[in-house]
Description:
Layout: E1 12-16, H1 28-33, H2 47-62, E2 83-90, E3 99-106, E4 115-120, H3 131-138, E5 144-148, E6 157-158, E7 163-165, E8 171-173, E9 191-192, H4 194-197, H5 206-224, E10 237-243, H6 245-256, E11 264-268, H7 281-295, H8 316-327, H9 336-349, H10 354-365, H11 368-381, E12 393-398, E13 401-403, H12 407-416, E14 426-429, H13 440-451, H14 455-465, E15 478-483, H15 495-504, E16 510-514, H16 537-553
Parallel strand pairs: 4-5, 4-10, 10-11, 11-15, 15-16
Antiparallel strand pairs: 1-2, 2-3, 3-5, 6-9, 7-8, 12-13, 12-14
Helix pairs in contact: 2-12, 5-6, 7-8, 7-9, 7-10, 7-11, 7-13, 8-9, 13-14
Amino acid sequence: MQGIDFVPGEVSVTTHREHDDLLSAGLGLEGLKGTLAPFANPTQPTVQELRRRAIQTSWKGIADLGPLGGYGSVYGAVPQVPGREYQAFAKIPGAHQPHRVLVQVPDHFDQAHRCLVVTASSGSRGIYGAIALAGTWGLPRGCAVAYTDKGTGSGYFDYADDSGVALNGERAKRGTATLEFEPAAAKGEGIAFKHAHSGDHPEADWGSHVLQAARFGLAMLDRAFPEQAPFTPENTRIIATGLSNGGGAVLQAAGQDERHLLAGVVALEPNVHTPDHGRALYDYSTEAAMWLPCALMDARFASTPFARDAHGAPHPVWVARCASLHAQGLLQASALQQQAAEAYEHLRSGGWSDQAMTTAASSTALDLWRAISAAYASAYLRRANNNMPCGYHYAGLVNGKPGVADEATRASWWADAAGIPPGNGIGLFGGTDESADPQLPGINCLRRLWTGNDADAQSLHASVQALAVKLPRKDLPMWVLHGADDGLLPTAFTSEPYVAWLRAEGRQPLYWKLPHAQHFDAFLALPGFGDRHLPLLPYGYAALDRLWAHLFQGQPWPAELPTPAGTARGAGPLQAGMLGM
């Protein structure tokens, strides 16, 4: 049996059959669409209840399960898949904190077409954060699926009661169990989470996390089917796939795959940083946090979803941002519409397209830019929660103010949270003043960490440089898919420079820049928003199908493939012909 010396502790093995399967924890598609699966005792949910909710919230956070979205009728399916789960905490050499790894092995594992799908969670989500992509594609066809949370996740540590999350998802006090994340300091305040406060630089290790998960997957297949062992890259095809941060993670893994573990890679909307090309996430997220509220006041965005309030009026804080930028000397005009036009041109000159800005109104209205920037700044500078850059910190949210989370809120975090707070009863505090533009002081400070040259800025730039992806081997089949309307990870900063770099270096990746697709399929269920867009997941499934046919049926891997010409969904339900495939 293969060694897994990177797993210092136990491997949990659980079975999931009948009303508790691998893919939906027994909920099926209709259950996944419904209200959150309840906890019989909200302060002490069972391990089974936590897992079911974690799977459901991961589905809801990634896929469009709305009544017009077509999931389960136009594309996708959620059949019942019985099997076993193998779960552990793994360690990258030198890391302070572990990453969680999990392997789902279906009972009907296809011994004739030995396949392991390896994936990493999107965003900063927990271990099931890629189940709607990797799980639903791989498990029904008989592949095992290996997941990593890539050093992120929702194993929040609460200093109020000195508790974190154990391997089974339950809350546990420091010293009573091995925790998903346990800050080194014995004392602190507020709430800390692994991505921002581990003292590591998890993003720089995402490729290593994926490759460890692949090795863990092979070892768990040895355990599941000892009569068929050993499972190796020579006799078991390993397909890497992921979306958003997970897409960036599998591209990192492709560039670090010295053992030739991977047989093919499909990356959706990847957060990828290419050496000397494109722009880093921290750069354009802090720019967006500062400039987009004003730019979106431009008349061209008057009918854009989220760019105006519920009554069609400008957001007062966004109007105030234009005035703030003028007061700082960054805008010359004194009238609002001229200020908005200046801010718009500033972003255009930096590479933002109209499509990206239009869709980014959603991320701006939901305050994602500030949330992302504050967390990533802390991660890049390796800060604890009580010493975050720019005066930020996380704490329980009680009546809009910092406080102590109640037991029920705390117990639900591992299952319900999406990764980076705020949300689920946790607030992001600090970096504000009492002005009409209260968030500007913190945003200015975060931006200076990129534009400045002091010790912290230099340290942050060094951390970003460590994210640069490496070249994959020449014969590795690769496919990058990205929505043309992505407003969170615009293609001009991410996939396009990466693909151009690969081609300049003699690689031949397939690339689809998909019309009308954007970053968050789950947002397509929001009224008015889905009318303009198409889901990205069906194209990812199609790419994985073609990779399967290449690896197992001998179909040639194309040098290029025309991008489907889809049409926006409109106000009615999604139809198959709209996808253009």
